[in-house]
Design a protein that fits this description.
The protein has five helices and five strands, in the order H-H-H-E-E-H-H-E-E-E. It is of the alpha+beta class and 161 residues long.
Length: 161
């Protein structure tokens, strides 16, 4: 027997519908962000800064975290044994490409091990470009006596092509 005066099941359905609407709104905001990126340089700049670990605060970075990052920009990086400008290379062939989150090369498993397992200082340069915007960041990876590395940004170059 169904009690027609029982509104608890209706309230539960409305609660679930509200949650679903919030999820749809969140997905819609992400879609708008991605669709506007080619036309609003500020959105592209924020995304470039996110990839270079240069957002103004952690909360700005965290707010952008759910936004997909695959294949957004042309990202190149190189890891060297010597500081930038210390050795003049005739042919600079050390550049490699990374399709998303290029800073992961020095912060995640395989790249971190390959480049940093020697416990010697390294210098990491990261370049990204998108629709006339260019961002380059340079980092010194300073080996620590107790193990691990200290990541120090040493140079910032930001230009528009």
């Amino acid at each position: 027997m169904v009690d027609l005066n029982d509104t608890s099941s209706i309230n539960n359905e409305q609660q679930r519908d509200l949650s679903f609407c919030c999820i749809l709104a969140f997905i819609g905001l992400i879609a708008v962000w991605l669709l506007l990126m080619p036309w609003i340089p500020g959105i592209a700049k924020q995304s470039l800064q996110r990839f270079h670990l240069r957002t103004p605060s952690f909360s700005v970075w965290a707010a952008q975290f759910p936004i997909p990052s695959m294949y957004n920009f042309a990202n190149q990086y190189k890891v060297e044994q010597y500081p930038p400008g210390f050795v003049m290379m005739i042919l600079d062939e050390n550049w490699r490409y990374a399709n998303h989150f290029p800073a992961r090369v020095i912060t995640f498993f395989a790249g971190r091990y390959n480049f940093l397992s020697s416990n010697q200082d390294r210098w990491f340069t990261l370049k990204s470009s998108y629709r006339g915007q260019f961002l380059e960041s340079k980092f010194h990876l300073e080996a620590q006596a107790e193990g691990g590395y200290k990541l120090i940004r040493i140079d910032e170059i930001e230009e528009s092509l």
